[in-house]
Amino acid sequence: MIRVRQIKILVTENSNQKIRERISKKLRISESDISSFQLIKKSLDARKKDCLYYSYEVDVKTPLEQKILKRNHSSDIFLAPKEEYQFPSSGNKKLKNRPVIVGSGPAGLFAAYLLAENGYFPIIIERGEKIEERIQTVKKFWKEGTLNPDSNVQFGEGGAGTFSDGKLNTLVKDSLFRGKKVFETFISCGAPEEILYLQKPHIGTDKLRIVVKNMREKIKEMGGQFFYHTKLTDFIIKDNTLIEIELNHQTKIPCDCLILAIGHSARDTFQMLHDRKLLMEAKPFAVGIRIEHPQKMINESQYGKFHTILPPASYKLTYMTKEKRGVYSFCMCPGGYVVNASSFPGCLCINGMSNHERKSPTANSALVVTIGPKDFGNHPLAGISYQKKLEEKAYQAGKGKIPIQLLKDFQTGTTTKKLGKVLPTFCGDVTLTNLNQILPKEICDSIQEAIPIFGKKIKGYDREDAILAAVESRTSSPVRILRNKNLESNIQGIYPCGEGAGYAGGITTAAIDGIKVAEQIALLYQKYKK
């Protein structure tokens, strides 16, 4: 196979036939000499609004492979590399007990999948419900306001990403093709094949739920075992080595290999781990609001005259304030919804969500401001306390409903009385209020300084009737659980993993970290023998 880069097709003439024609021209061969081709990457170049095109990278099968490679002098044409993930060979240490994974978000699920696939028979414990039950619980919460603290948008099978856009893009350099393994696994469990080659792949919350269910069933077929409504409440160590864990404050089971994929919102678990002297530290994260605009407006700004023939547009915005605080868009959801993502009584936080087709008339994104220990202190759990205070204020301001405000009123500190032309798309009840009474002054000032700048980058971004909602506080974990080069904590046998432990920032990176931890366990231990 020959790898060919920079195959450019105008968006108005995009088709497989046009791709074949461009391959033929670039390789200087007849179309009949192209046996087949496979898409490797597809990206949209929208820098020139009067000339938008797709750029493809493809692998081409042709009987003229050697001839083409001999005469070629272009960096865009070369022998297609072998890109295949390999799980490591097993170690020599005997595994006395089946490895236990705490949490079934992307990190936990992929650690479980790789271990099950390779003969380690993992046990997965999840404080929340399986995905089918969790969906109904979350819908009831959005409709009636009845919160289940252990099964909600944050907790339950699939993790927080299950109620999101299902974005899979990542900046992680991946020479061992763990990311490709993640995507191939998703596809085998029901995700669309396009995630393998799109520049900004996403699954959508509707399809991601199917994928999570199918992953669970495959893990079970390979020897994994799931326990729901099951929380890690304590662990027992001897000579600084894990020997036992406690579940739901009552059941104790022997354990010598524990993967902590607890997610970024497990505050009670973080407290227990800190009390048990697991080393951790506070880490920077970001907080702010969500902003809603008409999706049509975003499309027109990003795509110009081509906006009617292209998929819903996304954006990415960054700004450094005069006070040297970063302000940036985060988890942008084209054609999406703002959702009540609360997980603790008396606290309210929000997130963004889109289905695969992204058909909502509204675009939303978090606009968040960087914060760190200088804002909340150096205690390992200080960031959690900061989050909680903001979420309590949001809950009180909205009396349990999502607090929202028009941009013009946010800029003047006035309580909103009436919405404008932007259509609100929320999962969960909303109430008009003044977000300046929820967020710290430095956060409000930073966002207010940034939005006019963003309005110069995206036409209409600073429109007066844009809808703001609060509080976006769960952008990433406020804690990092320390681990060594073998991904093990200061207590032997405990492996912090994923976004909650502070080593990932999204579905793909969390899944990759789950794979990394599974590899380390395999390198140390023999396969488990029942």
Features:
530 residues; seven-stranded mixed beta sheet; alpha/beta; Alpha-Beta Plaits; 13 helices; five-stranded parallel beta sheet; FAD/NAD(P)-binding domain
List the helices and strands and how they pair.
Blueprint: E1 2-10, H1 16-27, E2 36-45, E3 53-61, H2 65-71, E4 77-79, E5 100-102, H3 106-117, E6 123-125, H4 131-144, H5 178-188, H6 205-221, E7 225-227, E8 232-238, E9 241-247, E10 251-254, E11 258-260, H7 267-275, E12 280-282, E13 285-294, H8 295-303, E14 318-320, E15 326-333, E16 337-340, E17 350-353, E18 362-371, H9 373-376, H10 382-398, E19 402-406, H11 407-412, E20 426-427, E21 430-432, H12 441-457, E22 467-472, E23 479-481, E24 494-496, H13 507-524
Description:
By secondary structure, the chain is α/β, with parallel strands linked by helices. The chain folds into three domains: 2-79, Alpha-Beta Plaits (2-Layer Sandwich); 100-281 and 477-524, FAD/NAD(P)-binding domain (3-Layer(bba) Sandwich), CATH 3.50.50.60; 284-472, no CATH class. Helix content is 29%, strand content 24%. The chain contains 13 helices and 24 strands. The strands form six sheets. Strands 14-15-18-13-22-19-21 form a seven-stranded mixed sheet. A hairpin with a 7-residue loop joins strand 2 and strand 3. Helix 3 (106-117) runs parallel beside helix 6 and helix 3 (106-117) runs parallel beside helix 13. The two termini are 43 Å apart. The relative contact order is 0.15. The mean pLDDT is 96.
